[in-house]
């Protein structure tokens, strides 16, 4: 008797409801705790001699509570509303083709996430993070009686002087960050889930509770901050902080050497605490809150929904 023929691999369609849900969750994440934590970690990474309290005072001095939301509109909102769609589309395509080549579900998932992360960096996250960092690190011109340029004026000034490269400065570091972020978050979240199942005696067929999902996703997001050095490198490459000793035409390698020589190994980990908090909040929003949102959408539409960050 011949063995049964395996069912052909089908490509999952990318649905509008998936993209809308991903954009909505990302917008919620960045508008609540996401941008304040982003501003704190970026400020600490750019001003590596500041203490945590000094960084908080620096941010407050830029505009009080609104200083913690600098770069939110439009750059963080543009990034949040587009990167989920880019990731979902590219990851879906990459997962389909890697599975067709014989990869396992776990391996295809990690590779798909990493591929999607790189696509995010070059399509939308690169120039958005660059403009957010520019706004956070540029000098406050109003203190000298000069009206600071608007965010779009700043964007156009950089474009006129440096072109596409200027508004995408540090994009290679962003790509490294995104791909390692996604590989880490996926893998570490799954490891934490397995540990929770082992402790609670649950098998793979049993669902984790909402609290267990939050713990697993929070741990995965927080532990993914191991790659903080590449984040500090990214901030330095995009920073508008004045330093005559900084080399011109920075590359990832040159920036690493400059930070290490001026601030040592500690300099490469500046801002890691708020980055851990940010990673935990992002992952909780997109995994734990995402599951609740998906359940609600499924009840309303009767369709299965998949949302990715």
UniProtKB/TrEMBL annotation:
Alphabetized GO MF terms: citrate:2-oxoglutarate antiporter activity; DNA binding
Start-end of each Solcar repeat: 14-96, 107-195, 212-296
Record's GO cellular component terms: membrane; mitochondrial nucleoid
Coiled coil segments of this chain: none
Membrane topology of this protein: Multi-pass membrane protein
Any one biological process term the GO annotation gives: mitochondrial citrate transmembrane transport
UniProtKB keywords: Membrane, Mitochondrion, Mitochondrion inner membrane, Transmembrane, Transmembrane helix, Transport
PANTHER family membership: CITRATE/OXOGLUTARATE CARRIER PROTEIN, CITRATE_OXOGLUTARATE CARRIER PROTEIN
Family named by the database record: Belongs to the mitochondrial carrier (TC 2.A.29) family.
Protein name, entry field: Mitochondrial DNA replication protein (Yhm2), putative
Species of provenance: Talaromyces stipitatus (strain ATCC 10500 / CBS 375.48 / QM 6759 / NRRL 1006) (Penicillium stipitatum)
């Amino acid at each position: 008797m011949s063995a049964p023929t395996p069912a052909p691999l089908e490509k999952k369609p990318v649905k509008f409801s998936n993209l809308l849900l991903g954009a909505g969750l990302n917008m919620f994440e960045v508008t609540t705790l996401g941008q304040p934590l982003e501003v704190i970690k970026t400020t600490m990474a750019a001003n590596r001699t500041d203490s945590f309290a000094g960084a908080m005072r620096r941010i407050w001095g830029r505009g009080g509570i609104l200083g913690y939301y600098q770069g939110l509109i439009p750059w963080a909102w543009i990034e949040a509303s587009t990167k989920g769609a880019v990731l979902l589309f590219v990851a879906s395509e990459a997962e389909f083709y890697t599975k067709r080549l014989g990869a396992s579900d776990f391996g295809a998932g990690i590779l798909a996430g990493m591929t999607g992360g790189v696509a995010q960096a070059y399509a939308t996250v690169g120039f958005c993070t660059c403009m957010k960092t520019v706004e956070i690190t540029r000098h406050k011109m109003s203190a000298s009686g000069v009206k600071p340029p608007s965010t779009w004026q700043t964007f156009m000034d950089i474009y006129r002087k440096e072109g596409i490269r200027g508004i995408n400065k540090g994009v290679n570091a962003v790509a490294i960050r995104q791909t390692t972020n996604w590989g880490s978050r996926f893998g570490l979240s799954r490891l934490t889930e397995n540990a929770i199942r082992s402790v609670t005696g649950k098998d793979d067929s049993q669902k984790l509770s909402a609290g267990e999902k939050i713990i697993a996703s929070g741990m995965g997001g927080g532990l993914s901050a191991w790659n903080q050095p590449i984040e500090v490198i990214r901030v330095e490459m995009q920073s508008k902080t004045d330093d005559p000793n900084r080399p011109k035409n920075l590359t990832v390698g040159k920036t690493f050497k400059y930070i290490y020589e001026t601030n040592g190994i500690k300099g490469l980990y500046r801002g890691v605490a708020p980055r851990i908090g940010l990673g935990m909040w992002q992952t909780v929003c997109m995994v734990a809150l995402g599951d609740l949102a998906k359940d609600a959408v499924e009840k309303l539409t009767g369709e299965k929904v998949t949302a990715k960050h």
